[in-house]
Amino acid sequence: MTSLAPGLLGLRVLEIGEMVSAPYAAKLLGDLGAEVIKVEAPDGDPSRRRGPFPESAQDDPEQSGLFLGLNTNKASIVLDLTTTHGQERLARLVAEADVVIHSLSASAALECGLDGPDLLQKNPALVVCAITPFGHTGPQAEWLAEEINAVHGGGWGYLIPGDAGNDSQPPLTVFGHPASCQAGMAGAFATLGAVFKSRGTGIGEYIDMSTMAHVAGMLEASFIAWSYVGAVASRAEGRILNPWGIFRCRDGLIFLVTVEQDQWERLVEMMGTPEWAQLEVFDQPADRAANRDLLAIYIDEWTSQYGVDELFHQGQKRRICFAPVFTAADLAKQDHLKARGFFQTAHHPVAGQLTHMGSPAVLTPNPWRLDRAAPLLNSSPTASFADRPTTTTTGSNVSLNTDAARDVARTRPLEGIRVIDFSWVWAGPFATMHLAFLGAEVIKIESSQRPGLGRRLPIHPPELEPTLNTCGYFNQWDQGKKSIELDLSQPESIATVLELVASADVVMDNYATGVMDRLGLGDDVLRNANPDVIIASVTGYGHTGPLREYMGYGPTTAPLSGLTALTGHRDGKPEEVGVSFGDPAAGLAAAFFVMNSLVTRAQDGQPTRVDTSLWEATAVNAVEGWMAHELASVPLERMGSRSLTEAPHGVFRCAGDDQWVSIACTSNIQWQALADLLGGEARHEKFGTATLRKTNEAELEDLVTAYSSQYDAWQVTHALQAIGVASYPSLSCPELEQNEQLIARSFWERFDHPEVGVRTHSGIPWRTHNSSNGVLKRAPLLGEHTTEILG
Fold first, then answer.
1. CA atoms of 634 and 294, how far apart (whole Å)
2. Pairing label, strands 441-446, 482-485
3. What is the pTM of this model?
4. Average pLDDT of span 722-743
5. Pairwise CA distance, residues 701 & 704, whole Å
6. Which residues contact 88 (CB under 8 A, 6 or more apart)?
7. For residue 330, which of 549, 618, 560, 547 has the smallest C-alpha distance?
8. N or C: which end of the chain has fewer CB within 10 A?
9. Per-residue confidence at 395, pLDDT binned at 50, 70, 90?
10. Phi and psi for 593 in degrees, rounded to 5?
């Protein structure tokens, strides 16, 4: 790892967060040098009771893996916010802070003095970020939800597992809390954007982040297939690209995907050009998709003859995208991750020396640090930001009472920032789309001779003749951008790019390692054109380390990171996680670190090199799996949608065809209310405690199913929410588009596109108080802005 850079030193962050999303957002800022004080209730953050725990210290709140993994680099102070004293102490901390991140509902925030607009009235430069399941506005804003409810309410759960073949079993939930981690990352990204603006203008922000909306905004091609084609994606549906899936080896499992035709041809050659592979039914991508089940049988028969490592390395040498299905124990052995400094250690006073997963990106210069392990409860009872170094904020006493000041307030944080975008498919476009969300001018470099895969995927309105402008995939993930057309094989085009770089703040690509160098656009060339430019890349394995040349696509990294190994039905096989999770995970991480680089460059004048790896950006979301390994807990197993500690917790059948509801009961009080609703056997003492409910979980689930199967999913949801139990239907994409909560928060974008007309696209998952909301403009036509920008 490179030497430490100043990073966010001087940024004062107050966290009033529970469980995952808000604590992870605050941790990300703390990892980059911010001073973070975590406020906990007298009984502590609930994640202290969720595990996984060391086998020798079950239920020790100081040794819960979830808490330990999400709360490094923080101080802990206990405040009872139901008391006047606690609220007064909190108000003093808020007055000293630059950023407040919390997970309280709108009503709870109001009760303890954390109402966003009110805080901005008192301190106009403050940045407040609330990360909640449904957001602070809308008809469901006060509903309860756990990870499982946000996953299924946001449409992701309905897609899990990918390519299941049928819908007879319930949709699944990915093990752990990856959706909440991603919402936390998005909240941290938006927060840094607001910090960037606040430091320049003295105008702060109140960010209202919805986890469910973020999930609905990372559904790969599923929602857009509904919007453009009318196809309803589900876990029973096969993939567009084949072969794609998990296959047997002699000593384990391996994931394989071929994205381009030439990759399929190299795979056929690697297999020895068997007769079956030359059949017409496997000739082209559409043929392989139509005959995917037969193809999978042949592929599985071939892979079962080889070892995992043999296929992984021999396939990658041929530029074929293989990836092993790793456990957390396998992850710990990876020399590539060790070489990139991904594992970092810290000593915890109770749990001892712990190895943590590190940064989702390698930064140069490097501000990322692991200074201390997670805090003991109330380890800093007198914690304060007073007398700590601060950063200068322009116009900290700004008034918004003039028209000019209100105009400044409405601007987005990155207006005036220019991004040169070489990205394609999903991970890179997801990153630059988020920069466009914050107002950056994002200029895509494209070519009609070699158009990106995002423009070529078969997701076009069936009534239209397909063109490079009618693909819904591109039009979804490239919203808010501009497009210029250049042939990068020509020297004059490279010269033009360098002229653009001279006026740019960021250059982003997600080509394979070495491609930018071969184009004549390596780091030295870019920095020679503009010494201040931030250079960011997303690749499968990163630009350093022994596997840096290996191919990596988004679907490969859940297998590599331990998520796939723990996702699946009880007593079933490892399953895919429903979307190519590595793409949005890495794209959002890259956007976050670019945003951090813009903040720190404005502070110290030094640009950053951001090297984001799909693998690392995915792995950090598998925090429970990793900490279970590190704490030597009872070995984790696939458990469907069950919780490690709570019951009932799962997805239950409802009346109707393929209708399901997610339910999470997380306390004895909630259980008593649910037991009264269920009646009869549910009131038996064998379900009286959390431990007993876990012991008798199968029987308990039968009782819940007997109730839920009588009603439709919304009837169950309303009944349970009315008694204070978290519940939400598992929504398909058509149901998602009609969801009243997302509609009320203006989540959907419907631009009038010149070629496809008005189509629905997912938008921005947060709402802001000061700056304008909504996506600024539709995705561009190929080369639409060439004359405007180059002229």
1. 39
2. parallel
3. 0.95
4. 98
5. 5
6. none
7. 560
8. C
9. very low
10. -75, -30
Burial of 531 (0-12, 13-18, 19+ CB in 10 A): exposed
Is CATH 3.40.50.1170 what the domain over 649-737 is classified as, yes or no? Answer: no
Average pLDDT over residues 748-773: 97
As a three-state string, the secondary structure of 300-369 is HHHHCCCCHHHHHHHHHHCCCEEEECCCHHHHHCCHHHHHCCCEEEEEECCCEEEEEECCCEEEECECCC
Q: What is the per-residue pLDDT for 6?
A: 73
> How many Å apart are CA 323 and CA 558, to the nearest integer?
9
Query: In the numeric block, which tokens belong to residue 641?
Result: 């949608």
Does 392 score more than 50 pLDDT?
A: no
Predicted confidence (pLDDT) at residue 214 exceeds the cutoff of 50? yes
| DSSP letter, residue 54 | B
Instruction: Spell out the CATH class of 12-220+382-405.
Output: alpha beta
Q: Angle at CA 188, nearest 5°, toward 187 and 194?
A: 90
Angle at 218 between CA 217 and CA 222, to 5 degrees: 95
Question: Which is nearest to 444 in space by CA: 409, 476, 486, 406?
Answer: 486
Contact 624, 644 (CB under 8 A): yes
**Exposed/middle/buried for residue 695 (C-beta within 10 Å: 0-12, 13-18, 19+):** middle
Contacts of 385 (CB under 8 A, 6+ apart): 12, 14, 35, 37, 93, 96, 97
Q: In 3D, which of 1, 2, 74 has the Cα closest to residue 33?
A: 74
Q: Which residues pair with 528 in a beta bridge?
A: none
* Mean pLDDT within 175-197: 98
Q: Which two tokens stand for residue 302?
A: 């071939």
Strand (E) or helix (H) holding 85:
helix 84-96
The pLDDT of residue 791 = 83
| Closest residue by Cα to residue 560 from 603, 499, 622, 509 | 622
| Beta strand pairing call for 12-16 and 35-40 | parallel
User: Looking at the DSSP assignment, which residues form a beta bridge with residue 663?
Assistant: 650, 727
CB-based burial label for 649 (10 Å; 0-12, 13-18, 19+): buried
Contacts of 393 (CB under 8 A, 6+ apart): 125, 198, 199, 202
Window from 86-95, 398-407, 460-469, 698-707 with minimum mean pLDDT:
398-407
Looking at residue 577, the DSSP 8-state letter turns out to be -
For the segment 555-568, the average pLDDT, to the nearest whole number, is: 95
Q: How many CB atoms lie within 10 A of CB 698?
A: 9
Q: Which two tokens stand for residue 570?
A: 């009880």
* Region(s) of the chain under CATH 3.40.50.10540: 12-220+382-405
CA angle 538, 541, 546 (to 5 degrees): 140
Residues 6+ apart with CB under 8 A from 617: 360, 361, 557, 582, 585, 586, 588, 589, 590
